[in-house]
Design brief:
heterodimer, A: mainly alpha, globular, B: 419 residues, 3 domains
Chain lengths: 229, 419
Amino acid sequence: MDFNWLFFWILAAITVTSAVAAVLTTHIVRMAFYLVVCLGAVAGLFFLAGAYFVGAMQLMIYVGGTVVLIGFGVMLTARTPFVRMQTTPDQWLLAMVTAATLGAMLLQATLRYPKPIEPPGIGEPAVSPGRLGTAFLGLRLEAASSGTSSQTGGDGEDAESLGVAYLLPFELVSVHLLAVLIGAAYLARPRRRPDQETGREGEHAGAERSGPGEEPRPAAVAIASGGDS
Amino acid sequence: MIVLCVTALIKIFIIIGALMTAAAYLVLVERWVAAWVQDRLGPNRAGIPLTKIRLWGLGQPIADGLKFIFKEEFVPGHVDKILFTLAPIATLAAAVLIYAVFPFGSLQWMAGGEPIPLGLVSGFSAGLVFIFAVNGVAVYGIILGGWASNNKYSLFGALRGAAQLIAYEIPLSLAILTLVLAAGSLRVEDVVAQQAESGVWNVFLHPLAFVVFFVAATAEAGRLPFDLPETEQELVGGYHTEYSGMRLMMYLVSEFLHMITASFLIVILFFGGWHLWGLTGAEEAATWPIALLRVAVLLVKVLAVVFFFMLIRWSWPRFRFDQLMALAWQVMVPWGLTQLVFLALWLEFVEEDPWSRGWASAWPLAAANAALLAAVWLLTAWVAQPYYDNRPRRLALPTKATVASQRAITAIPDASQAN
């Protein structure tokens, strides 16, 4: 008996439901929360497939890092208690095109596999971090390949190529987090002179000075684009 | 497969049951420690229910639990109901989930058989990354609970909590990265095995990383010098001001679980896990008595660290928020970076594998790291002169330089009069 199918369907159902909920709700913080649930369930799918390192990284970077910063941006920019936002038709269109492209690519990649791969047990990971701890710093690669200390990161794998292979993803991760950081700083910047930023906001400049009830448009746009990544 | 599922369920049941009981009784222990520190008696009356037997107050957790269960679960009208309900659940789930990767040693069921690892997901190849990740998820319970309460104090508490947890995650990660660099692996078991095989605990080998980790773990657990998210004197109750009944209990239990988690991590990463010199042995496979002894050693160490946390709670005043942030960014992050770079340089240029012959080969690194800790500590103390005035820094007492310059200014008219 194998219960992997059961957990797969549970996690897949959570993923799809929360993804749909994140798209349909008009409530910014709830949207971020559904996104967290969705990303967490995807991390669960990674764990189920035996890609423990990818799953843990998904949890750490997307769930733990990105969305916390998004939440910060929203909470620091929201001027009313429960902010609502509407997705405009052009945003719907753009999102649909992006999602359809990604969906087609994933579907094609899935159908090219002749049969489902058997997930490995807990002891033998499909993707092992191996000597990542030393390798991603770029140091001790010679020591890693000669294999001096007692480490059991898989027998047949070449530790040196593994270490180099993980250097690039780590750099990409840091660049990604930097982009998010800059985005959050941009969202939280003081807006004293709204009429000088864009023509669109300039039209509403009078309304914005009149009180705090104005809809924070930049935050809403950033959330929509943050959800696509 | 069925056997695997059943054993997994049994392990989950044991761990969650033990955690909940431990949390309940550690609340009692914390109250006893508080009473001991403050020279009181503490809770000593509740015993076996419906009898007059007191049992030194050991029935207190039952009474506390019943009180929480029977309290009204009041949901204020102004909250966001979905997130208000989900936030404590997320907090508790994240707090429990982290225990999946803690190793309790391993057990050789029969002579010559395969050793069975004790622990939920043993041999998890990315265990340390998983610990970071779940630790990061814990922020959501605080931030969502405080936001959904739609209350000024709750939101203040949530923002403080989120800022504090994110800030201290960085030194925590740097300290763990040091150990990852040392062990050459992301498996928690490998970190323990390295300490057990060489007999040199990481606390002696990397004292600077230990100091950074200890402070950051205390802050992550929100224990008293760092309990800014729920300062009673400033924020009513912090991020869980609006909560009551079982929902409040979920928050309180997960706070306690965070403290126990921090203790487990400190013991596993820095104090050798289940290893104790001359008692537990170092090889991976262990027979029944040795395996039980190892679990006992681990739990005794964890309880000792928990006791130390409780003593800290009743001996330190709370930090101010600017002090908290300054400690994280100006002290702990540079210290963690220093330790990481120092170890990387040492492993690259001085000695590749200081663990190979135990203390005989590890002592130069231990001595160098101890010297590094002292140097960094003294340097920080010299650069950041202490100010004994507890007002914010811009109002602090004048330093030597300003006093001297003021004297010089006031001295001029005196000199002219004398002439």
